[in-house]
Design goal:
Layout lengths: L4 H15 L15 H13 L3 H18 L1 H6 L5 E5 L4 E5 L3 E6 L21 E7 L3 E7 L5 E7 L5 E5 L4 E7 L2 E8 L2 E8 L2 E8 L4 H9 L3
Length: about 220
């Protein structure tokens, strides 16, 4: 039997209400977040004053809505393609409005070895850093206000969301390293895997992709 759009909306609303009916109050919930989740929050915190944060945040919220309304999404025929990248143990699910990247195989639980940048672009100085067992983050800024953020993160319980509506997503091959790139007029983002860790370079301003790939070549 066919239903109208209004009837579908009412059914979804009722379903969500029933789903959250028995959820306890926030003060009653005791939960310890995983290292992967904490690492993601640190990466987002490092980017929260920039345009890139809004893309990530928007996609994450959409993803949350997607999983809450999974039955409705599939009933509406949204297509999902899974692409496996066994060489780097990276998988990506491509949705209509964003890409979700996650990690398979022998993922890392703790940073045992820190990889450092050895080729810092001329004019950039380190302005902040943060380190935990799950992630390492450095921020560099030049006199023009251009910014580069470098991070190394464990891959256990870790995922990345990239908005595919407003930017260009493609891959680069640097030697034996496969780099997933995202470009938008306001931001450039490169990520890759090595030794089980996720590495990311995010740039704002007039920083070129070539500058970022030069940095990658000098990370040891």
């Amino acid at each position: 039997m066919a239903i109208t759009e209004q009837e579908l909306k009412k059914a979804l609303s009722k379903g969500f209400d029933l789903q959250f009916l028995n959820v306890p109050a926030e003060t009653e919930i005791e939960h310890i977040f995983s290292q992967g989740f904490e690492a993601r929050m640190q990466r987002l915190e490092a980017k929260n004053k920039n345009g890139y944060w809004h893309f990530i945040n928007t996609a994450a919220k959409r993803a949350a809505c997607f999983f809450l309304g999974l039955f409705a999404v599939f009933s509406l025929g949204v297509s999902v393609d899974a692409i496996r990248l066994p060489a780097v143990e990276l998988a990506v699910k491509i949705f209509d409005i964003y890409n979700e990247y996650y990690f398979d195989g022998d993922t890392t639980q703790k940073i045992e070895h820190e990889y450092k940048i050895t080729r810092i672009p001329e004019g950039f100085i380190k302005t902040s850093e943060s380190k935990t067992e799950a992630s390492v983050n450095y921020t560099y800024i030049n006199g023009a206000g251009d910014k580069i953020i470098y991070s190394q993160t464990i891959t256990a319980d870790t995922g990345v969301f990239l908005d595919n509506e407003h930017g260009k997503i493609y891959t680069l091959l640097l030697g034996d390293i496969k780099v997933n790139a995202y470009e938008h007029p306001e931001v450039k983002h490169l990520m890759w895997l090595k030794d089980g860790y996720l590495f990311e370079l995010t740039a704002y301003g007039e920083v070129t992709v070539q500058t970022l790939t030069d940095i990658i070549s000098g990370i040891e």
